[in-house]
Amino acid sequence: MTAVYIPALIYLAVTMGVMAVILFLSARIGRRRVTREKMLPYECGMDPLGTLEIHFPIKFYVVAMIFIIFDIETVFLYPWAVVFRDLGWFGFVEMLLFTAVILIGLVYLFRKGALEWE
Amino acid sequence: MSVVEALYQCSGLLAVLILFATGVLILLLDAFSPLGRKGRLGGVAVAGTAAALFAAWQSESPGEPLFFEMVVWDRYALFVTSVILLGALLVLLLSLEGRRRDGAGTGEYYALVLFAATGMVLMAQAVHFIMIFLGLEILSISVYVLVGLPRHERRANEAALKYVLLGGFASGFFLYGLTFLYGATGSLSMTAMASYLGTGERVFNSYLLLGTALVLAGFAFKLALVPFHLWTPDVYEGAPTPITAYMAVGVKAAVLAALVRTFREALPAVVPHWTTALWILAAVTMTVGNVMALVQQSVKRMLAYSSIAHAGYLMVAVVAGTPSGVTALLVYLLAYTVMNVGAFGVMVVGQKERDGGELLQDFEGLGFRCPLVGAAMALFLFSLAGIPPTAGFLGKLLVFSAAVEAGYTWLVILAVINSVVAAYYYLRVVIAIYRRSEAAEAGPEPAIRLSGGERAALILAGLLTVGVGVLPQGFWEMARRAVLALG
Amino acid sequence: MTEAVTNTGGDWLRLIVGLILVLIFSQLNALFLVWLERKVAGHIQLRYGPMEVGPHGLLQTIVDGIKLVGKELITPFKADKKLFVIAPVLVFMPVLVPFLVLPFGPELIIRDMNVGLLLIFAFSTFSVLAILVGGWASNNKYALLGAIRSVAQNVAYEIPLLLSVMSVVLMVHSFKFSELVMAQQRIWFIFLQPVAAIIYFICATAETNRAPFDIPEAESELVAGFHTEYSGMRFGLFFLAEYTNMFIVCAVATSLFLGGWHGPFGFSLGIPGVVWFLAKTYFLLFVLMWFRWTFPRVRFDQLMNFSWKVLIPLSMLNLLVTALVLKFV
């Protein structure tokens, strides 16, 4: 059974090999000259200002969390979509309820302003 | 399964469905209502809980497994559900005024209380370990958030963080234990497990023992039994007081219900090997809880330790394990629920007047400032101490006699010594209530004003505390029939 | 993609021949697409684009590629060395796997897996990870900003993408590409599922970070976004992966909504299936380029709102309506 997926692994391995060759060639052919200016972070030619320890808006984290909920929902929906016909009305009603609960969650987030970016 | 059949089976999940639907409704109402009108959400929550309680009593309990052998609706589930919902109802009534004052987060608060109740009831109904785990997670996650809901209070933040981290570990232990149980028995359904294990020849299987140990550890964490209790005082102290009450009674009732069902229906073959461990667990839990409670200055923290001690008494009944032991356990759960929520309820009332309001001196003169509240507190504390004719006394009596009957005399002797020690710190508070404080001698202090919800909650809890103690026959009979439903 | 790959050959032979063809094809495709992009851009802006190397500049990108290999690989001083090196590898590693299951023609599928569609989505989400790793490791403000935005955007547009595809899966009951395409012999799914098709295409544009959703790169504000600090072939790998990913999303769109190797309404007009397939795919690729040079970049808040408030509810409703209709048909 798992043998079915071996081709995917082979493709991954071959891609890695091709990349290794490309990067090796590039490293061999390309020049190497280290200067201070070149190795600094690029900020349009100026000396870099400050550090990278920036606080990102909490929004990004909230979105990431919401994403997990919805992604898991799709994970549940996918197998359902395949066996949809065999499950009959029961499967349909059950998924309807599940989706409704998730949608209510979305409406709640919507109203509470979790999705506002202004 | 056809839709009609599913709908029919829903009648066994009516309480869960009503609780969940009310929770969702509150979330939506909260999202769509203007800030000034959030006070009404509390009414919706109370009504929903009451409706769930009513529905639970109306729906017949056939005792057959429902929904692919995931849940069951039997008299045992009915009893535990009633206790849980009673606790939730009292907690909601106590929360009404505080929520009206705070405003922000009101909808979430009520919704989460209801979601937590959903998880608790599911745990009481579960006959499949996956269902137990789902119930546990639903209730845990809701309670984590409830603990941390006062976002600008440091203590609450600390408590929530501690609880979520340690609780995550506990859930992990539990789930890890389930994988071992599944490996050892080939199923997570309780009946399938029990029939596989049969009379117990296969018990000396290291996977099975390890799995049981991990599951037990997960339960023990949620019950705050002693080696797993370290989070309890801080979390109970930091959480909003009604939520502390909720954690102390609702969570414990649900987890104990699941624990007892696990032992009696899934692992009866394994339990004899664990009796010694449970014995030690019970003994250590009540001793440590009581000794630590002795030295607390904060009444809230004292009650936190006292709830650990009570978990120990409850474990005595689990150790006994006989039908009369489980009956005693159920009655004790009921008694513990009403008296403990009552005691925390008085603290909620006291905290309205003073900032903090948790120290012993804050209770001084309470009996003069508001006779009803003072008397109620004295009653609850007497009951917690196990003084007749209160519910606490009856519960202890039943538990101890069942344990003696089962042959655990030494454990009972230890428990009685503990009760005597415990009486000291409970009565200390009672004395404080009826002592005139220094401030009162300087001039009369303002009387405490009770809101309708608080009055209702305290009276209901007080009546039940006395009622269970004085007229135990009906409650005992109900618990006895509930135990008959167990395998 | 020639007739050499036939059903009569052993599975392994098929696999190896397929692999070689895919390697050649993906490189040529990327080179061609870069040239096409420049040509399309040029003509839309009333200029010629590359004209010097080869007829109409056709060999321009090959020369560019060779030049890129010869460029220095710069690793900035304060960059997280390991992650910095891994990121381009991570972005390019998964791009060839989807070719395993893409249905170029009735007999031209290297391996018709039962999880075909899932395989593609599983591997195509790697690119977000690579972008995050690359942007994070660069120790550059522009790169980090680009990476963070990119994750938020990709995450937001992945859900409607998956949901819209699901309504097609619901109709066919399979993830197998051969079955998905065979179901469209009479009528393409774009006519039965227009909403899903449009949502898919919008999301695919966003997932490949193409304009008007090119927030992660946003030349005019973030220099070059997450790959600001990359040079030489490390940059080249990001570039190659982007164009290969474009081909993949368009090929998936072709096989899910435009009938794959089938001609319109069952008329193949004597043209072989693989030609139909490639023609439709390249047409979609052309549309993607057309988008880029026509629409202005979307503001970030509009971008997020559009996904969470419009596309996700819409795709969910579309799915439910599909399920309901299927119940009654």
Automatic annotation (TrEMBL), chain A:
Enzyme class of the recorded protein, top EC level: translocase
Keywords, in A-Z order: Cell membrane, Membrane, NAD, Quinone, Translocase, Transmembrane, Transmembrane helix, Transport, Ubiquinone
EC numbers on record: 7.1.1.-
Subcellular location: Cell membrane; Membrane
Gene Ontology molecular-function annotations: NADH dehydrogenase (quinone) (non-electrogenic) activity; NADH dehydrogenase (ubiquinone) activity; quinone binding
Main localization (coarse): membrane
Annotated transmembrane regions: 6-29, 60-81, 87-110
Role played: NDH-1 shuttles electrons from NADH, via FMN and iron-sulfur (Fe-S) centers, to quinones in the respiratory chain. The immediate electron acceptor for the enzyme in this species is believed to be ubiquinone. Couples the redox reaction to proton translocation (for every two electrons transferred, four hydrogen ions are translocated across the cytoplasmic membrane), and thus conserves the redox energy in a proton gradient.
HAMAP family attached to this UniProt entry: NDH1_NuoA
The family this protein is said to belong to: Belongs to the complex I subunit 3 family.
Protein name, UniProt field: NADH-quinone oxidoreductase subunit A
Originating gene: nuoA
UniProtKB/TrEMBL annotation, chain B:
Keyword vocabulary terms for this entry: Cell membrane, Membrane, NAD, Quinone, Translocase, Transmembrane, Transmembrane helix, Transport, Ubiquinone
GO biological process, one term: ATP synthesis coupled electron transport
Entry's EC annotation: 7.1.1.-
Annotated GO MF terms: NADH dehydrogenase (quinone) (non-electrogenic) activity; NADH dehydrogenase (ubiquinone) activity; quinone binding
Protein location: Cell membrane; Endomembrane system; Membrane
Catalytically driven reaction(s): a quinone + NADH + 5 H(+)(in) = a quinol + NAD(+) + 4 H(+)(out)
Main location as per UniProt: membrane
InterPro entries per record: NADH-Q_OxRdtase_suN/2, ND/Mrp_TM
Domain NADH:quinone oxidoreductase/Mrp antiporter transmembrane stretches: 127-420
One GO cellular component term: plasma membrane
Regions crossing the membrane: 6-29, 41-57, 77-96, 108-124, 130-149, 161-184, 204-231, 243-264, 276-295, 302-323, 329-349, 370-387, 407-427, 456-476
Bilayer topology term: Multi-pass membrane protein
HAMAP family: NDH1_NuoN_1
Function: NDH-1 shuttles electrons from NADH, via FMN and iron-sulfur (Fe-S) centers, to quinones in the respiratory chain. The immediate electron acceptor for the enzyme in this species is believed to be ubiquinone. Couples the redox reaction to proton translocation (for every two electrons transferred, four hydrogen ions are translocated across the cytoplasmic membrane), and thus conserves the redox energy in a proton gradient.
Subunit architecture: NDH-1 is composed of 14 different subunits. Subunits NuoA, H, J, K, L, M, N constitute the membrane sector of the complex.
Family recorded in the similarity comment: Belongs to the complex I subunit 2 family.
Name under which the protein is recorded: NADH-quinone oxidoreductase subunit N
Automatic annotation (TrEMBL), chain C:
UniProtKB keywords: Cell membrane, Membrane, NAD, Quinone, Translocase, Transmembrane, Transmembrane helix, Ubiquinone
Listed transmembrane segments: 12-36, 83-104, 116-134, 155-175, 187-206, 237-261, 273-294, 306-326
Membrane topology reported for the UniProt record: Multi-pass membrane protein
Catalytic activity entry: a quinone + NADH + 5 H(+)(in) = a quinol + NAD(+) + 4 H(+)(out)
EC top class, as a word: translocase
Domain of life: Bacteria
Chief localization: membrane
Recorded GO MF terms: NADH dehydrogenase activity; oxidoreductase activity, acting on NAD(P)H, quinone or similar compound as acceptor; quinone binding
Gene that produces this protein: nuoH
NCBIfam families assigned to the protein according to its UniProt record, in alphabetical order: PRK06076.1-2 (NF004741)
One GO CC annotation: plasma membrane
Single biological process term from Gene Ontology: aerobic respiration
Stored Pfam families: NADHdh
Task performed by this protein: NDH-1 shuttles electrons from NADH, via FMN and iron-sulfur (Fe-S) centers, to quinones in the respiratory chain. The immediate electron acceptor for the enzyme in this species is believed to be ubiquinone. Couples the redox reaction to proton translocation (for every two electrons transferred, four hydrogen ions are translocated across the cytoplasmic membrane), and thus conserves the redox energy in a proton gradient. This subunit may bind ubiquinone.
Enzyme Commission number(s) of this protein: 7.1.1.-
Organism the protein comes from: Desulfacinum infernum DSM 9756
PANTHER family (alphabetical): NADH DEHYDROGENASE SUBUNIT 1, NADH-UBIQUINONE OXIDOREDUCTASE CHAIN 1
Protein name per the record: NADH-quinone oxidoreductase subunit H
Stated family: Belongs to the complex I subunit 1 family.
Subcellular location field: Cell membrane; Membrane
Subunit architecture: NDH-1 is composed of 14 different subunits. Subunits NuoA, H, J, K, L, M, N constitute the membrane sector of the complex.
